[in-house]
What we know:
This protein is of the alpha/beta class. It is 33% helix and 21% strand.
Amino acid sequence: MKFSKKQRIVLNWWRPSSPHCSKEAIICDGAVRSGKTLCMGLSFFLWACSNFSGARFGVCGKTISSLRRNVLSELLPKLKAIGFSVTEKRTENLVRVSFGGKTNDFYIFGGRDESSSSLIQGITFAGVLLDEVALMPRSFVEQACARCSVSGSRLWFNCNPEGPHHWFYTEWILGAEKRNCLYLHFTMQDNPSLSSAIRDRYARLYSGVFFRRFVLGQWIAAEGRVYDFFDAASALPVPKGEFSMWYISCDYGTVNPASFGLWGLCEGVWYRVQEFYFDSKREMRQMTDAEYADALAKLAGTRPISAVIVDPSAASFIELLRRRGWNVKKAENDVISGIRRTSDLLKNGEIVICDTCTDCLREMEQYVWDPKAGKDTVKKEHDHAMDDMRYFVATVLAKKLEPIAACSVYRRI
């Protein structure tokens, strides 16, 4: 396996011959696919099994499923290939690793929300690896660091950039020297396995704030239009081909506008072919749940609707639709993740907004980031069709992207 210069620094920083061996922590951040995750994982396990035996370590991701998929599924086979003995106990979220007569236990944790910090309390670690640390709540990260009380323990952090006011950037990256931490910034050029064609493809995939963060690796603020690459004037008519599947996505509103989008699958592309949009302030009246349900039925027509994806807070509307026989799914409502997923699919041409959806096209031009917010936040204006579109992508097309699973509790053995 070929490694770049920066990857070799990561692999060897803890060795006595390294000029960085006195550091107590390492941070690797930067672009996606820049080669930081694999070399961090390899280095972490090599360090642990070279310096400890019978010790416990933490391996943390946003969720256990994402950690298994993005880190362990690639890392563990490589450890076996270089002579490590690896035993995985999935029900206990434990990986037992042996090498050179030494055996250590690596416990897997998900740090998805504030409650996750309780999962890691009471454990003593000789070291912890936090993958995608910028996506974890501060309480979980600080609890994981506090668990490393064994003499010689070290901290390992890996992430893609977020906003410039993110707590991890301001306190750990900007304060790396004060914290006796080695900081390395990665670009795609630091990954020797990437061809120039693949680098170009990633450059085309992202735009706006996501391009600057994921491709350039910058900790920058979200500003301007959310979908700044989208040109409403180039919207296409509804295709004349046969549609094989149908969904309706709903952003429910009484005082605020309500937006329903009708989505059809044609030759591998999802088209938003029609919409219902009602602004009670503009119309100077409010609609009842029953009227909204009637409007949804009219939008569906005779089409076989696989499911209706609804704003999860619209409890009364969801109940009414179910009573009327609709298959209703509560929408996945992670805003920033949903925006990124939607942006990717729009750029790839996997979802298309047809010229019949005038209110959705209007909002695409008006949907903007809030520059006054201390974190990535969109202005709560012109966002109703944007929300129903995001619900559809995050809920129906999630399997094509990044599934989310709840983390499991720690069990002592």
